[in-house]
Design brief:
Elements lengths: L9 E5 L3 H9 L14 E6 L1 H14 L5 E5 L16 H6 L2 E5 L2 E7 L4 E6 L2 E6 L5 E7 L2 E9 L1 E5 L7 H4 L11 E7 L10 E4 L4 E5 L7 E5 L2 E3 L2 E8 L5 E5 L5 H8 L4
Parallel strand pairs: 1-2, 2-3, 3-17
Antiparallel strand pairs: 4-17, 5-6, 5-16, 7-10, 7-14, 8-9, 8-13, 10-11, 11-12, 13-16, 14-15
């Protein structure tokens, strides 16, 4: 952190919105843009959703480079302030780097198929019908809750703790906390359980009980799998991502600030 980078080639990716496309055209002459496959870092124009899309695109391709976001969306929690600057390459090189470790979800669906999906913000298990979900919660090979009746349950990383997790009354986690938030969504029984904060080396297993009557879907950021039997969750340290932030506008400061917003 705080070390100047030496990026010489940047890629530029923009969301399909008019604002982002106009911004991309205005930045055409500000850096030596190259295709993502040849870039040392990428500038992402859009909102948090497009940033997540870009990070997942890199995870899927197997080639990951640092990402510098410029907000042309709504919240922009993962983004920097947008500015048309002729010295954009220098600005990216002066940005602070933050490592983000995604969650690896290994899911088994009711038809016996196995799936591996990565999540940067959170993995959520959600009921598919009007019937309340019934889920068994196991942490580090020990059953912690035999039967959780709820609308769902989620596991959030620090980077995602201010997203869906916060809306579900989960805790905000500092970026360097090395913790995960395990948060129930509208729990019915046990009534008083409000979730847990776990070390990020924990292995979390969630098994769907009575799936024919109470089917459950799993959502890893923007990807959904239906009719889940069980999922295993753990941090994917071999898939580390890097986000770049302007000095004074870093993600850890935003996480602290979020805790004082009424």
């Amino acid at each position: 952190m705080g070390v100047r980078h030496d990026f010489k080639s940047l890629a530029l990716l923009a969301s399909p919105t008019d604002r982002a496309q106009d911004a991309a055209r205005s930045l055409a002459a500000t850096a030596p843009w190259v295709p993502l496959e040849q870039a040392e870092a990428v500038v992402v124009l859009g909102g948090d959703g497009f940033m997540l899309h870009t990070l997942h695109q890199m995870l899927d391709s197997g080639r990951v480079v640092p990402a510098y976001g410029m907000n042309l969306g709504t919240v922009g929690f993962l983004m920097n302030r947008f500015a048309r600057r002729p010295d954009l390459l220098r600005k990216v090189n002066e940005a602070r780097a933050f490592a983000v470790d995604p969650l690896r979800m290994e899911a088994l669906t009711q038809d016996g198929k196995h799936h591996e999906v990565f999540a940067i913000n959170e993995v959520s298990l959600l009921r598919e019908t009007r019937q309340t979900a019934k889920i068994q919660v196991t942490v580090n090979e020990k059953i912690r809750i035999d039967e959780l009746f709820c609308d769902g349950i989620l596991v959030a990383t620090p980077a995602g703790s201010t997203a869906y997790n916060l809306s579900a009354n989960g805790p905000i986690l500092p970026l360097d906390s090395k913790m995960l938030a395990l948060t129930p969504i509208s729990p019915f029984r046990p009534r008083r359980w409000r979730g847990a904060i776990l070390p990020d080396f924990s292995r979390i297993d969630l098994r769907v009980l009575d799936p024919e009557k109470r089917p459950v879907a799993a959502v890893a950021d923007q990807k959904e799998l239906r009719d889940i039997a069980e999922v295993q969750l753990r941090i994917a340290r071999d898939r580390e991502l890097t986000l770049l932030f302007d000095p004074g506008h870093s993600l850890d400061e935003r996480i602290v600030t979020e805790q004082f917003i009424a």
